[in-house]
Write a structure and sequence with these properties.
- With about 600 residues, this protein is of the alpha+beta class.
- The protein has 4 domains: about 25-125, Immunoglobulin-like, CATH 2.60.40; about 130-280, Immunoglobulin-like (Sandwich), CATH 2.60.40.10; about 290-450, Immunoglobulin-like; about 485-590.
- About 25% of the residues lie in helices and about 40% in strands.
- The chain contains 8 helices and 34 strands.
- The radius of gyration is 35 Å and the shape is extended.
- It starts with a helix and ends with a helix.
C-alpha cells in the first residue's frame, strides 16, 4: 500500500513538473476571412497550462463587434510521458463593414502576473473572397551545388488552417531549367501545423531529389494552385446568444444543404530560392566517372586459394552519401594472370530519395596460371563537394594461391584450331573452351545475360498469358463493368465507418465527424459508382435514401457538418446514437 502511495505521489510530481513549463499566449480569428455580417470567433489560447486564469478586457475596434460572451475550454494530453496542456478563451466576433482589421495587443494578468496577448488580423469582405495570405509556397534547398551534383530539397505547401482544400493541390516547377527535379512522390509528404506571424497554417512538406545541370545562378521555384472552401453558416443569430447549430436544425426543412458552406475559391501562390551552381574544378583523375558525394570503397575476394580455370568472385562495395546512380563500375584489367568479366551491380538505399546507402559490384575473375597471384588493382574516384576536391582510392593487395590442374588454359590463343585452347565468342554468349590432355573435353563457363535470349524465352509465356487474361477481363466487364469501382468505394466507406465507430467509443467527437462525412460520401458512391465522392452532399444522400422524415434529414446533415458545428460548441446528441445512425445509413446505401 505504501509503495502504491509513493508511486502515485512521484507520478503527480512528474506531471506537475511537466505542466508547469513556460506559458505561451497566441491569438487568432477563426475564420481569418469573414463575410460582412457573419459571425466568427476571436480565440485566445494559453499553451502550457490548463489551470491558470487569464483576465483581460476586450478592446474596441472600429468595424468589428466583439461580444463579451466568453466560452472557456481546457485540455491536457499525456502521450508517452510527455504532457501538453492549453486553455482557450473564445468570443463571438462580427464585421460591420469590409476591410482588414487589426485587434491590438491586450494587457492581461495570468494568476496575478502581467502578460501580453499578441495582436492579430482579420479580413472582412462582402463577396466571400479570401485574402492573399491564404497559401504560402516555400522551398528549402542547398545554397551552393556543383554541376552534376544531386541533393535533397524540401517543398512546403502551407494553406491557412481555417480553409478546407477540395481535391488537393498540384505544385508546378516554374524555375530555371538548370535544376532538374525528379517527380514528387505523394507517399513521402508529411503534414504539420505551423504558425507564421499570427496565422496558423497546415504545412504539407514533400522531400524531393534535385540535380544541377547548368552552372551559374539557378532559380528553383514552384507555383501552386488549389480550390478551397471556407466553412460558414447562414444563421439568424441575434447578439451571438443563440446556438448556430440549433438554429440550423430548426430551419432544416427549408434550408438547402449547399448553403451550409461557401462556394469554391481558387487560391494560388509561388515561391522559390536561388542556387549557385559551380562547375567541377579541373584536374580530374582519369578514373573519375562522374560520382559526386562522400563515399568510401572496399573490396573482398571469395577465397584466398583457387585453381587454374576456376573463377573466383571479387566484391567491390561503395557506400556513403550521394547519388548512387552516378557510380559506375570501375574498370578491371586482369593482365596476363587473370581474365575478368563484366560485373553485376546492386544498390541498397537507406533513405527514400536514394541519396544514402551502398552499391555492390561483383566481378568474376579466372586465374590463368598457377602460383601466388596478386588480384588486379582497381581505382575508384569521386568528387567530394564538402571539401571541393577529388578523392581517388586505389584498391589492391589481395594475393591468392593458385594450384595447377589438368586443364591447360590459354591466356592468349594465337589461332583457332582443335589442338590449342581458344576463346569462343558468339552473339550474346561468351565462353572459354578448355581442353584436357586425355581425353579431350570442352569446358564452358556460365553464359552472360543476353536480352535476345531472355526475350525468346519469355515471349511464348507472355502470349499465353495475354490470350487467357484478355478474354477473362472482357467477360467480367460484360457482367458488371463497374464492379471494380464498387469494390473500391465500398472499401473506403467501410474503413471510414470503422474509424468513426472507434472514435465514437473513445468519445472523440472531432475524429468521429471527420470520418463520418467520407463514410457517407463513399457509401453513396457504392450505390452510384459513376458519382465522384467529393461531389456528394448531404442532400444527395437524403435523396438516395428516399427519406422524407425530418429527423433523418437532421441526422444526415449533422453527420455531414458536425465537424464545423463543433467550432461553435458541443453537439447536444450522444455520439453512440449518431454512430448507430451512421451504421444504419451506410448499410442502406449498400456498404458491406
Amino acid at each position: 500500500m505504501r509503495t502504491k502511495t509513493l508511486l502515485s505521489f512521484i507520478l503527480a510530481l512528474f506531471m506537475a513538473a511537466q505542466v508547469c513549463h513556460a506559458v505561451a499566449i497566441i491569438s487568432e480569428v477563426e475564420p481569418a476571412d469573414l463575410r460582412v455580417g457573419e459571425y466568427g470567433r476571436y480565440v485566445v489560447t494559453v499553451n502550457g497550462t490548463s489551470t491558470k486564469e487569464l483576465v483581460f478586457e476586450l478592446p474596441e475596434v472600429d468595424g468589428l463587434i466583439i461580444l463579451n460572451q466568453r466560452s472557456v475550454s481546457n485540455k491536457v494530453n499525456v502521450i508517452n510521458g510527455s504532457v501538453s496542456s492549453h486553455v482557450q478563451y473564445s468570443f463571438p466576433i462580427r464585421a460591420t463593414r469590409a476591410g482588414t482589421f487589426t485587434i491590438p495587443e491586450i494587457r492581461a494578468t495570468l494568476d496575478g502576473e502581467n502578460v501580453v496577448i499578441p495582436s492579430t488580423r482579420v479580413n472582412a469582405n462582402k463577396d466571400g473572397s479570401i485574402s492573399n495570405d491564404s497559401m504560402i509556397v516555400k522551398v528549402e534547398a542547398p545554397e551552393r551545388m556543383y554541376l552534376g551534383q544531386s541533393a535533397q530539397a524540401m517543398l512546403h505547401l502551407m494553406v491557412r488552417s481555417d480553409l478546407n482544400i477540395v481535391g488537393g493541390a498540384s505544385p508546378l516547377k516554374v524555375g530555371s531549367d538548370g535544376i532538374l527535379q525528379q517527380p514528387l512522390d505523394p507517399k513521402l509528404a508529411r503534414n504539420s501545423k505551423v504558425i507564421v506571424g499570427t496565422t496558423s497554417y497546415l504545412d504539407v512538406s514533400i522531400p524531393m531529389l534535385i540535380s544541377a545541370s547548368k552552372s551559374g545562378t539557378q532559380k528553383l521555384e514552384y507555383a501552386c494552385e488549389a480550390q478551397v472552401r471556407q466553412p460558414r453558416r447562414n444563421s439568424r443569430v441575434i447578439g451571438g446568444l443563440d446556438d448556430p447549430l440549433e438554429e440550423m436544425m430548426r430551419n432544416m426543412t427549408t434550408m438547402r444543404m449547399d448553403d451550409l458552406s461557401s462556394p469554391l475559391v481558387v487560391i494560388s501562390a509561388s515561391g522559390g530560392t536561388n542556387i549557385e551552381v559551380s562547375p567541377l574544378p579541373a584536374g580530374a583523375p582519369a578514373s573519375f566517372d562522374g560520382a559526386i558525394g562522400s563515399f568510401s570503397a572496399k573490396r573482398t575476394i571469395s577465397d584466398n586459394q583457387g585453381k587454374v580455370g576456376e573463377p573466383l568472385e571479387l566484391t567491390l562495395t561503395i557506400e556513403g552519401e550521394g547519388d548512387l546512380r552516378q557510380i559506375m563500375a570501375p574498370k578491371l584489367d586482369g593482365g596476363d594472370d587473370w581474365r575478368g568479366y563484366p560485373p553485376t551491380e546492386q544498390a541498397t538505399h537507406e533513405d527514400a530519395l536514394g541519396l544514402k546507402g551502398n552499391k555492390v559490384f561483383k566481378y568474376l575473375i579466372t586465374p590463368l596460371r598457377p602460383g601466388t597471384l596478386s588480384v588486379p588493382p582497381m581505382r575508384f574516384c569521386h568528387f567530394d563537394p564538402v571539401n571541393g576536391r577529388y578523392v581517388e582510392s586505389v584498391l589492391e593487395g589481395e594475393r591468392v594461391e593458385i594450384e595447377g590442374s589438368g586443364i591447360i588454359a590459354a591466356a592468349k590463343p594465337k589461332a583457332a584450331n582443335t589442338e590449342q585452347p581458344q576463346i569462343n565468342k558468339t552473339d550474346g554468349l561468351h565462353s572459354i573452351s578448355l581442353l584436357y590432355a586425355k581425353p579431350p573435353y570442352g569446358a564452358l563457363l556460365a553464359p552472360q545475360k543476353d536480352k535476345l535470349f531472355l526475350f525468346a524465352q519469355l515471349l511464348p509465356a507472355a502470349l499465353l498469358a495475354w490470350g487467357i487474361i484478355v478474354p477473362l477481363r472482357r467477360k467480367m466487364a460484360e457482367k458488371d463493368p463497374l464492379a471494380r469501382m464498387r469494390r473500391l468505394r465500398n472499401k473506403h466507406a467501410a474503413a471510414a465507418l470503422h474509424k468513426a465507430l472507434k472514435s465514437a467509443r473513445a468519445n472523440d467527437a472531432a475524429s468521429f465527424f471527420a470520418f463520418a462525412r467520407p463514410c457517407l460520401r463513399n457509401a453513396l458512391a457504392v450505390a452510384d459508382p459513376l458519382r465522384q465522392p467529393e461531389t456528394v452532399s448531404a442532400a444527395d444522400v437524403i435523396r438516395q435514401l428516399g427519406e422524407t422524415d425530418a429527423e433523418t434529414r437532421r441526422t444526415v446533415n449533422l453527420l455531414f457538418n458536425g465537424q464545423e458545428a463543433l467550432r461553435f460548441g458541443p453537439v447536444n446528441q450522444p455520439l453512440d446514437e449518431l454512430a448507430r445512425e451512421l451504421s444504419t445509413i451506410s448499410v442502406k446505401l449498400g456498404v458491406k
